[in-house]
């Protein structure tokens, strides 16, 4: 995620946080408290975005690892099959040569 997307998400979280609280004209509430509440809301939104990004990154990483492991195991299985097929072909060739030349009787 690039910086522009992160800033847009944080700004959206900030606007949502401000719009989700009813506006009260209480005499005891100050601009400082409003700024503090907005800062907390932005921090919470940023933390949620960070956790979501980390979760997606872990999921992608684990998926990639599983795919690589599957490909590796498939390649190993193919290698073993080729080796067994080669051995069986060699044995069949050896047997056919012995039959033709009557060796080993």
Automatic annotation (TrEMBL):
Region (Disordered) location: 28-52
Keyword flag Signal: yes
Keyword Signal: yes
UniProt keyword list: Signal
Residues annotated as signal peptide: 1-25
Name of the molecule in the record: Uncharacterized protein
Gene3D superfamilies, alphabetized: Helix hairpin bin (1.10.287.700)
Superkingdom in the source lineage: Bacteria
Organism: Dyella caseinilytica
